[in-house]
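Q: Could you fold this chain for me?
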Amino acid sequence: MNGRTHLAEALRWSAGTAVEWDQAVSAAVGMAAPVLLAAAAGNISLGLAASVGSLVASGVGAGSSARKQAQELASVLAPAALASIAAVLAAGQAWLTDAIMVVLACAAATIGGFSRPAVAAAMRFVLFLVIIIAVADSTPNRAGLLFLIAAGALWTALVSLLLGVLTRRRRRPAAAAASAAPQNATVAQKLARWRKSLTGLSGWQYTLRLGFCLSIAGAMRSLWPNHHLHWIALTVAILMQRQIDAASIKSTQRTLGTALGVFAAGLFLAIRPPAWGLGLCIGLLAGLRPWLKARNYLAYSAVMAPLVLLLLDGGGPLHAGVLIDRLMATLIGAALVVAANSILRRILENPAYAGS
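A: Sure. Below is the predicted structure, expressed as structure tokens.
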């Protein structure tokens, strides 16, 4: 595939999977409301912290039943809650914070090979570990931060559940038909398969790539503490996927979308928007996330990256130096991911590792 065709595929719009309106509404209301309420009270930083928690539960659909929806919310909240606690405890310890982050992220990446739900939980844990460490590092009252994150997550979960009650009856037949799924493997079978995977290099490739990238990100942050380089680790957490995709369409979409999103968010913050404008922008981006994810991954990445950046930097204006740091960190993080993917792919394709 030549470069022009590759780019055309990256920009191609897909009909995608249908996204119910309650997903978009719960995400938008869940994330915008804390910011708008805090802005009205004159302390927007509290609302941004709560919206970090709202990000955890945003975009969960109604499901086929209240029980199914509650289970999905629990599967989303549990790893994020563990990540929040770990991040708050690890934050503020200089280079040791980065070391703890790498160890915890690698442990989660390794455990994530147990099953498909574990893969999603591990990636969610890593993403929120990195995000919340970035927030907690600049927050003196970390216990209060943990409370706000929990409050934001529970608020958004409540909004999602209420909207699910209102919409479930309308789509019950379709949901019931979709719920018929093949039986999964037993726990013993999953455990045996997971243990077997860890006997070869292929079972460790995600852990190695993630650990490599986060270690370099942490080292660079320690070497140049006056620059805003924690976004390198954030970019890695956003871009790194469990399967190696050194030159795939999705890799291009994630990289371009993240860079464009960071640039757009930086320009938005540079104009010093009013607090209510920031809240509405966060709500709009949050509502677009579940819809764009099913349409075009480049557009989704271009929304996800600025959403995170607004939560981290929305409390104050973003001057040119910080914007340059963010853009450079984004490019460095993307380059690290591409390099790690390429290196591991070449190693695994070596005949010496065939079957690993």
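A (continued): The longest helix spans residues 320-349.
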